[in-house]
Amino acid sequence: xxxxxxxxxxxxxxxxxxxxxxxxxxxxxxxxxxxxxxxxxxxxxxxxxxxxxxxxxxxxxxxxxxxxxxxxxxxxxxxxxxxxxxxxxxxxxxxxxxxxxxxxxxxxxxxxxxxxxxxxxxxxxxxxxxxxxxxxxxxxxxxxxxxxxxxxxxxxxxxxxxxxxx
Length: 166
Fold this sequence. Notes:
Strand order of the largest sheet: 5-4-7-8-1-2-3-6
Radius of gyration: 31 Å
Number of strands: 8
Number of helices: 3
Structural class: alpha+beta
Largest sheet: 8 strands, antiparallel
Helix content: 10-25%
Strand content: 35-45%
Order of helices and strands: HHEEEEEEHEE
């Protein structure tokens, strides 16, 4: 009861000094009453926080930088994520010439000299590409090392303009 009386006295003092509005004074009195009741009755307050981890899907996501290759002036970002059991690849390239389609692929190996094409991606047009791959996240990860490579054009595939390692 000593705690209750202490909080009650503080609430009255603050209200009388106009340092606190009536609402806060009443709230403080209620808190004091609750503390006094719990302490006076010997009851313990049980924790009520419960962490639920069921049905929370694992996020499978990777973001990588596509660095400039062969003084192209083109850099970008690739975002790779799993959606509905498939892999979605989004590319954003800056510095790409207007009205140019640049082929993009996932290759074996790593930059700056990746190997064979494993997955063709949608051509980069106006700095963007989006592709849904018919594979799973785990299958893609099992094939590493892999690299995403953007080529200058269909006719000049040997000239890489940007590249990033998965």
